[in-house]
Amino acid sequence: MGQATLSRDIHDLNLSKAANGYTLPLGESSSALTLPPVSRLVREFVLDVRSAQNLLVIKTIVGSAQPVAAALDEADWSEVVGTIAGDDTILIVCPDKEQAKELADRLEDMLS
């Protein structure tokens, strides 16, 4: 997975680099974007999945946490209460430890 693939995905998503990360062009809403499937984004960008009680910490390739988190939010899985994304880390809040484990297993399966 190289910079060219990340650059192509950023272009495909029509994102613009801003001081605080990547943003949508003015006048566009996030619902206008079509994100690649979660499985593809996880497979290409996720490096590690760690659980802590009802939380998951996902390490990604630098600059790719936000698109992965957006795809997870859009997937509307019952195990995901919400996500917070930085540059290379995503925090996922799950309803409980059991669902966090289920989600971790689902994401790990996508990595293999």
For the record, the CATH architecture stands as 2-Layer Sandwich
Structural class: alpha+beta
- The number of helical runs is 4
Number of domains: 1
CATH class equals: Alpha Beta
What name does the CATH topology carry? Gyrase A, domain 2
Largest sheet: 4 strands, antiparallel
| Spatial ordering of strands, largest sheet | 3-4-6-5
Structural notes for this entry:
The chain is of the alpha+beta class. It has one domain (3-111): Gyrase A, domain 2 (2-Layer Sandwich). Helix content is 39%, strand content 25%. It has four helices and six strands. A four-stranded antiparallel β-sheet has the order 3-4-6-5. The chain has a two-stranded antiparallel ribbon with strand order 1-2. Helix 2 runs antiparallel to helix 3 (65-75). It is globular and about 40 Å long.
Keywords:
6 strands; single chain; 112 residues; two-stranded antiparallel ribbon; Gyrase A, domain 2; alpha+beta; four-stranded antiparallel beta sheet
List the helices and strands and how they pair.
Layout: H1 3-12, E1 16-18, E2 21-23, H2 38-45, E3 46-52, E4 55-60, H3 65-75, E5 82-85, E6 89-93, H4 97-111
Antiparallel strand pairs: 1-2, 3-4, 4-6, 5-6
Helix pairs in contact: 2-3
